[in-house]
Specification:
2 copies of one chain form a homodimer. In chain A, a hairpin with a 2-residue loop joins strand 2 and strand 3. In chain A, strands 1, 2, 3, 4, 5, 6, 7, 8 and 9 form a 9-stranded antiparallel sheet that branches. The first copy, chain A, is about 25% helix and about 35% strand. Chain A is built from 7 helices and 10 strands. Chain A is globular. Chain A has about 220 residues and is α+β, with helices and mostly antiparallel strands. The longest helix of chain A has 16 residues. Chain A has a single domain, classed as Roll (Pnp Oxidase, Chain A). The interface between A and B is large, with 106 and 106 residues. Strand 9 of chain A pairs antiparallel with strand 10 of chain B. Chains A, B: InterPro entries: Pyridox_Oxase-rel, Split_barrel_FMN-bd. Chains A, B: This is Flavin-nucleotide-binding protein. Chains A, B: Pfam families: Pyridox_ox_2. Chains A, B: It comes from Saccharothrix espanaensis (strain ATCC 51144 / DSM 44229 / JCM 9112 / NBRC 15066 / NRRL 15764).
Chain lengths: ~220, ~220
């Protein structure tokens, strides 16, 4: 039933296995929409969901300047970021072997605030294109005031790990041999629904392709 | 684009608004499948996904006894737990007003290990029925050895908050008045797929109703 923890570890650059793992890390990060960012505040943990985007081996984290944990993270304290995708529930023959199929990435590091306007604009483009591909070219771009009101952090993906569970249950041999119960996986799918236009739209405008064709 | 942070706060029991908020908290917790559990290890934050289940105002957290952060949490250190459900991407007229629709719960507290066998069995039932309703009555129940190999924590929901965003974008008046671009919400849905039987099944067995009829 557990999503086992991803131990604090580094995917070492260079080795063949590391290349595979880094590709898996990138794939998981690119497939998620929201991350969970953890920081330490007054000795206690604080975790909150926030948007992110990846550019190479840099993870950008996004938040309003009012977000306490992002303010904390911006001071150079250690952060931990998790991205988890659920793929199914694993119904085993025994309660004990019940589990989930999932893809999980965990990143450790120190988040650095992005303050240079050009770098911040680039980071916001990465964040926007992760959340809503096509929006950067379609929507009104940030004003200097909006840029200033946005807090962006950069986190290196050097210390990261990825853990993936797929496939059928891992029941005990005796339970499998007894064959007394059904076992298998109930997949969990996510899909985009039908776009819901803002009631404040005046003109009768088609849903743009970057929204209507999103897969 | 941000999931704004849920500030550390308490839903006070008793008041009318608190009742509503507590119902919303319960609804969010009951709708999720995985939580993100954060603890402090050697002064640094650690966050990992794990299974959970709710019974009244108690949240049970589940993990193998090998899970480092659960071992840490079991020593009585402060924990923070987040459950986040994504409901859609909010395409605004401006990049700055892009957002997500979501339901997010955050719980602060001190997790207490559940060690009494009867209490642990009850907690495991709650966890199992959250992950896979019907499995407790259908699957083989835990042996004493399996029970001992499982770590369960209990966390009181006394200090918790819930934050929900719904509806269309919150664009600036000037952007709305200009009416130059489409804006709206692209909903994100999750749905169960077709059950995938374990290839190791011997008998030709129907998928049981608690799996096939899950909604």
């Amino acid at each position: 039933m557990t999503l086992s923890p991803t131990p604090r570890s580094t995917i070492k650059r260079g080795s063949k296995r590391a290349v595979t793992e880094r590709e898996a890390l990138h794939t998981v990060l690119d497939a998620g929409l929201v991350c969970h960012l953890a920081v330490v505040v007054d000795g206690a943990p604080l975790v909150l969901p926030t948007g992110y985007g990846r550019d190479g081996d840099t993870l950008y984290l996004h938040g309003s300047t009012g977000a306490r944990s992002l303010r904390e993270a911006a001071t150079g304290v250690p952060v931990c970021v998790a991205v988890t995708l659920l793929d199914g529930v694993v119904y085993a023959r025994s309660v004990f072997s019940h589990s989930m199929n999932y893809r999980a990435a965990v990143v450790h590091g120190t988040a650095v605030p992005v303050t240079n306007p050009d770098a911040k604009t680039h980071a916001l483009k990465v964040l926007t294109e992760h959340l809503s591909p096509g929006s950067w070219d379609y929507a009104r771009l940030p004003t200097p005031k909006e840029l200033a009101a946005t807090s962006v952090l950069a986190l290196d993906l050097g210390e990261a790990s990825v853990k993936i569970r797929t496939g059928p249950p891992g029941d005990e041999d005796a339970d499998v041999a007894a064959d007394e119960r059904w076992a298998g996986v109930l997949p969990l799918r996510t899909a985009w629904g039908t776009p819901e236009p803002d009631p404040l739209l005046v003109a009768d405008r088609d849903v743009p392709p970057h929204v209507s064709a999103r897969r």
